[in-house]
Specification:
Bound molecules: pyridoxal-5'-phosphate
Structural class: alpha/beta
Distance between the termini: 54 Å
Strand content: 25-35%
Number of helices: 12
Shape: globular
């Protein structure tokens, strides 16, 4: 359920008409529904209420400060993958002890900052990273709690670019190498290994992959406990999929909770989760205006003012996003490729879509863009990044201004 709905054949986000939003803020425009974000957070909190769990929102999915504030105000923590994300999360009010720091390439500065603010854990992805942490901890004589991120070699059915749980990917420590790595910090006075972590991929639609990963982590945690390590938690990462086309049938958040509870319920291990997409994905849409309509022989094109720089997912992952006309005028329909103005054939938002025949000036909404939309945006073709608004009931807040052209070259040095 999201909050983009037609009322009298006109599309609304919550109680605000998309036509009004476009005329007040211009297009392209990222529109987010605060109620959807809150409902998704609450579903997570409820689904995991019977097991000690920390829900750490994956900041990378949508890092706008106002979005983060909404999420943290409900009691969620953060999963960050760079010092930039850490500082953002802190600025938005997250409690440092609710932050986990993931990522395959944390550098010295990032590790030092994480230690100094007192994050809950660094999720360590290699022996090299572990040795760096050990060195820093010994120099500073500060304790740091870590989880070792395990790569459990699980083949999930998702786009290969977002599958992260196979040994051939760069992520985590192969499960067979765990014992070799962990002995470097056995009984270490400052580096305390308290947990195991994994993140097997994103946009996962089957629960069995999560269950398999949880089983593997539980088994490894028990093995380590018998060897004298005090492993007390598992971080299962993010990855729960959502519906992009109304046809794929993702598990609900509560089914996901039940599945993990089945494996970990009596384990005595505290659970950490890092959901991103499942919190913000269906809360957002990109409002875009048709610039031109053209026909090239057999193909019909709708050229809109949003492009791959605003939403790279269709081009990068061949991802599908539903596209709606803002006025549901029941006109003759046409099959059209909805494309942006960027000079790449890969610059499309949707191919072969049947929509009410568009004309210049019409508005469209590209749905389910709350996650990995604005956070993956770029300035390609010297296109200013779009503004962002947060709608809550009948009120709307500008939460990021549209970039000005001047700001795009402000940092460049030209004699
Ligand atoms: C380590 C880690 N945690 C959490 C996430 C969030 O995944 P999702 O948005 O699919 O829940 C990602 C996404 O790439 C990730 O790499």
């Amino acid at each position: 359920m999201d909050h983009f709905q037609y009322k009298n054949d006109e599309l609304y986000c919550e109680e605000i008409s998309c036509v009004e939003l476009a005329s007040q803020f211009g297009t392209p425009l990222y529109v987010y529904s605060a109620s959807t974000i809150r409902e998704n957070c609450q579903q997570f909190l409820k689904a995991f209420s019977k097991h000690p769990t920390e829900i750490c929102y994956a900041v990378k999915a949508n890092y706008n400060l106002s979005v983060l504030k909404e999420v943290f105000s409900l009691g969620l923590g953060a999963d960050v993958v760079s010092v930039g994300e850490l500082e953002r999360a802190l600025k938005a009010g997250v409690a440092p002890h609710k932050v986990v720091f993931s990522g395959v390439g944390k550098n010295r500065g990032e590790i030092e900052r994480a230690i100094s603010v007192g994050v809950a854990a660094l999720n360590v992805e290699s022996l090299s990273e572990l040795l760096l942490i050990k060195k820093i901890a010994e120099e500073t004589k500060k304790k740091i709690s870590i989880n070792l991120r395990v790569n459990p070699n699980i083949d999930v059915r998702t786009n290969p670019y977002i599958a992260t749980g196979l040994h051939k990917t760069k992520f985590g420590i192969a499960d067979e190498l765990l014992l070799e790595v962990i002995q470097h910090i056995k009984n270490h006075p400052y580096v305390i290994v308290e947990g195991l972590a994994c993140h097997i991929g994103s946009q996962i639609l089957e629960l069995d992959s999560f269950e398999q990963a949880a089983q593997r982590l539980k088994q490894l945690a028990y093995e380590l406990q018998t060897m004298g390590y005090s492993i007390s938690r598992v971080d299962m990462g993010g990855g729960l999929g959502i519906s992009y086309d109304g046809k794929d049938n993702p598990p609900s958040i509560s089914q996901y909770g039940e599945a993990l509870f089945k494996v970990l319920g009596t384990s005595g291990l505290k659970l950490y989760l890092e959901p991103g997409r499942a919190i913000v994905g269906n809360a957002g849409g990109i409002l875009t205006r048709v610039i031109h309509v053209k026909k090239n022989k057999a193909r019909h094109f709708t050229v809109v003012d949003a492009a791959m720089n605003d939403l790279i997912r269709p081009c990068l992952y061949e991802a599908f996003h539903e596209i709606l006309t803002v006025r549901n005028n029941h006109d003759d329909k046409v099959i059209t490729d909805v494309v942006g103005p960027v000079c790449e054939t890969g610059d499309f938002l949707g191919l072969g879509r049947e929509i009410a025949t568009p004309k210049s000036g019409d508005l469209l909404l590209v749905k389910t863009t709350g996650a990995y939309g604005s956070s993956m945006a770029s300035n390609y073709n010297t296109r200013p990044r779009a503004a962002e608004v947060l709608v809550s009931g009948t009120s709307v807040k500008l939460i990021r201004k549209r970039e000005s052209l001047e700001s795009l070259w402000e940092l460049e040095l030209c004699e």
